[in-house]
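Model it.
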Amino acid sequence: MLQPLERLRREMSRLLGSFDADLFRSPLRRPGYEMDLFAWPEMAMAEPAVDVTEKDNAYEIMVDLPGVDENSIQIKLSDGGLLIRGEKTEDKEERGKQYYIHERRTGVFQRYFQLPPGVDTDKIEAAFRKGVLTVTLPKTAEAQKAEKQIPVKTGSDT
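Modeled.
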């Protein structure tokens, strides 16, 4: 059972996701309410926080994965997109004078990003440092040249 604040957050994400349905659609964006929850609500990382940026020569996806072991992260190209999957485990042991607590928790997360046209899939790179996964999706040479400046004419130019 989800806690009340988590339910409220999911509902707000769903509502706001439908509000901007076509206005600000990014090729890498996915609605926030499509979540793969961890096994236990206390670990409700639901889906990791992600920043997606477009640069002149590449797209960059930065995923916050605090406490995740780098060996549990998988990155795959699948069905025209990029799948990031991993597992977070927590093992907590506490001893007191009259008690002993040993808890283990495990949860799986995944995010899928539809790749925009012009990504050079043979040159995709990933790095994991200090709990942040950075995936670089280089653009092909053709995609980097695809932008063209259009001059704006004034009323006297026509």
